[in-house]
Amino acid sequence: MLHDLDGDFGVVVWKMLRSVLLWAETSPSDRGSLFSPDAGQRRRAELLAATHGENHPLLEPMESLLRMMDPDTIPDPDEVGVACLRIAGWADENEFPRTAIEFRQAAALSCPSNPRFALSVMRTARDLAQYSRAEAWFHRSVGLARQCRDWDTYVRAYLAHGTMMRRRGALPAARRSYLKALRRATRQGLSEVRSMTLHDLFVLEEYASNRDAADRYAGLAADSYGPGHRSLPTLAHDVAVAWLQQGYFENSLKVLRSVFPHLPEAYRPVALGSLARSSAGVGDTPGFSRARRDLSRIPPGPGVAEAWIEVARGSLLLGNRAEARDAVRRGEDLARTRMEGQIRFMAQSIFDAIEAEEAAALRQVPEPSEGGAATDRSRLADRLVVLLEPLSSGERAHSAARR
């Protein structure tokens, strides 16, 4: 953790973490004599000195934790846990992952019967690729959720586990976790997490190249979310990108055009790259140029390098090797700066295609043979567009109200 936070401030935060862990390990009946009478005052003085008297965002949650060092105060474990989670949230915002996971674990140990706190540790450990740690906290979260019949957390734990298994390439294990989540969500009538599970099953089956199953789960997820749901744009984007990778440009473009205005900012770069490539795939040169121009206005950040790789692929589809070479160089330069190795590998494959004069072959790739799936895919595209319409209506009403 001291790699995240250096100097006096890091030492004070580390000391507070140690105090919380000691408090959590101590029997409630013995906590009153755990710290010396002036321990809280001394720690408070250290904190103020380390923050130079500024209004630091951690002062409030740290003040909550200081109460556990007061021999005359009996803090509620949930209060301690929430304060730890607030510190973890601050660490996330500032990209201090080791600090975040240690305080999430401190929260879970302070409230050992809370399955949501345990799940929070599991997710963070998973995202840090600490898989053994994540597996242990997954089982703890599931066990606690079952004990207190918190079925929402139970389902979310299996979803988190399924995602971890998918990332590790253990697709059968991922499918088992997702299906277990789906059965429990359906049995308990938990519509929100049921929709999320269907969405995750779509992602899994698409990743496994089970196209028919992927399209089926995508349709079920869309219907489960329902018109205007806040998560519908993410699903629609995921479906459109999957179709794009398979070469189904027309349906992909139809959905991308409809969903783009509703996507979170973080999705915009990748969506613009996808719009450029799908526009090129149907021969819409003006649409390709608009998407490329809009992408050029976005500053470097997550997804931008990948988006330029998609622009390069679109340029090849239009037969413009010079523009493809320019786009792939942009993507590779950004990927090198951000140490995105996979994107650099993708860039090199496009350079190889250009140098081997394969652009003509890429340009002449026929629309994939879909058989009976073509009509189903087109229907799903139309359905997604219709389900997204209430979002446009809501935005128009909000805009009118502001005027």
Can you give a write-up of this model?
By secondary structure, the protein is mostly helical. The chain has helices at residues 7-25, 39-50, 59-66, 77-93, 97-110, 115-127, 131-147, 151-167, 171-188, 191-207, 211-225, 232-246, 249-259, 268-281, 285-296, 304-317, 321-337, 341-355, 359-363, 373-402. It is globular and about 75 Å long.
The sequence of SSEs as H and E is HHHHHHHHHHHHHHHHHHHH
Number of helices: 20
Can you tell me the residue ranges where pLDDT is under 50 for at least 5 consecutive residues? 396-403
Principal-axes geometry comes out as globular
The helical percent reads over 70%
Radius of gyration: 25 Å
Task: Please supply descriptive tags for the structure shown above.
403 residues, mainly alpha, Serine Threonine Protein Phosphatase 5, Tetratricopeptide repeat, 74% helix, globular, disordered C terminus
Question: Would you summarize the structure shown here?
Answer:
By secondary structure, the chain is mostly helical. It has helices at residues 7-25, 39-50, 59-66, 77-93, 97-110, 115-127, 131-147, 151-167, 171-188, 191-207, 211-225, 232-246, 249-259, 268-281, 285-296, 304-317, 321-337, 341-355, 359-363, 373-402.
Question: How do the helices and strands line up, and which of them pair or pack?
Answer:
Elements lengths: L6 H19 L13 H12 L8 H8 L10 H17 L3 H14 L4 H13 L3 H17 L3 H17 L3 H18 L2 H17 L3 H15 L6 H15 L2 H11 L8 H14 L3 H12 L7 H14 L3 H17 L3 H15 L3 H5 L9 H30 L1
